[in-house]
Amino acid sequence: MGMLYSSACGYAIRALTFLADRPVRELTQLRDIAIAEDIPPAFLGKILQDLVHGGLLRSSKGPGGGYALAQRASAISLLAIKEVVEGTSDLEQCASGLGACSDSQPCPQHERFKPLRVAMKRYLAATTVADMAGALAEKRQLLGRRNTHPAKRSKTTID
Hints:
single chain, mainly alpha, two-stranded antiparallel sheet, 50% helix, globular
């Protein structure tokens, strides 16, 4: 998925972003989330259960059951999702892999890596599911405009 989080965490972010666009009281079935986000259902089921246990989702079993956000989308940060799905210890680890690394016992990369680590944590803490849903809606709107106005598309493409 990237350097900030695992594929499981990326799937969790996508699922929560999908649910952010649903009515607050409406429960959405796992299968609908999996199809909409192209996530393997069995893998998604485990991730959603982790999110329920972590207090970010609520669920109901049986007919008419499903999942919904347990908090406002604007209250769920990417850092909170990462904490639930995979933990955040990787954001504290030594960049050189030397184990103990701190301001008092720095590794050779400590001073260069520390600002990056701080920036990553700030980004994850400041970015919410609502932000992700808003950015996705803007992207869809922009792509929709591009697809409906072929004359406005750039003639140069990059493959």
